[in-house]
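Sanity check

After download, print the first record. It should look like this:
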Amino acid sequence: MAFALLSCKEKSKFLVDVHELDFRNKTSNVIHGQTAISEIPGVDEFVLFDTLLIFDTNDPSGQLKVYSKNSYRLLGAYCPMGRARNEFINTLPTTDQIYYNRQGHVVFPVMDKPDVLKEVDITESLTQGYTVVLDVRECLPFNKGVVVYLNNNLDYKFEFVRNKFEAHEEKNSVPSIYRLIEPSGNETELEIFSSMVDNISENRSIAPYSGTLYKHPDRNIVVQNFSYMEYLLFFDFDKGTRFAIHQKDAPTFDGVYEGKGREDYFSFTDAATSDKYFMIIYWRGDYFLDVPNREGNNEVLVFDWNGNYITGFKMDRKVSRIEYDESRHILYALDATETLYAYDLNGKLP
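Expected structure tokens:
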């Protein structure tokens, strides 16, 4: 699907080119999932990589549960609660980023509250039977923002710093900071917003900018979702470009954010990445909004890495987290019952 380009205007508060699309209410049939793993106690997030499904849970004896994606068998539990080098006060994946290191091992960067990053060697942990940590370093506190690592290098970082204020702090006119930190130590701040969106409620002034970052599995392309705005912001650090896509006729950063009615619902939440596709949970379609009391199910929209809308799916249940296995064309999703479902997308994607 081709998109129209609206160049960022001289006085716009959003300082990137915006591509206007129409992806709302474009999904067709409901897709139905099969139970893959039932009742994963205390699960919050999960990632898929290689032949593994890794779940972040609240089990103090092993907060990361590693399963085989082929057999759905539990292979091991790692990152026990504690204060040693290979223990964690609480595990928190920085994003869904996971990668191979130079030795070909599967490495998962995990935050240990509040501002410590530990590189967990999943391959070696499976081999040794205990948690193996490769590197430990300070990082941006999780409550301050989000970090992705370019070229799978902990010294090459892109940071999205949320503009949250404590009661004693003076507010400024910039909603968020986007910062590129190179291995040399050189820091570049990217200009994305010129000033805050007009807002009818000061208590909701940060809401339009809330979101997180998702990186392409191999390339240095990063996407930011916006939780309450129908934008996706793309950064291609290999090409040095950035742009956004936006649902046409939806509220913009140059309008007034009211934070009520449909604006009070999520727009985008969790996403799944693969070589070809960027998939994201979407809440602003009639499929969800037309059901009273927020009891409707959500949708998953599929884009390519150039920001083109490809297709979308109505989900058979309300899902909270997703991952996509491109090799087998299976979409995985978690729901509120802590159950993992598998959705066969063979023949449903180009």
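If your output differs, re-run the checksum step. Summary of this record's structure: DSSP finds two helices and 30 strands in the chain.
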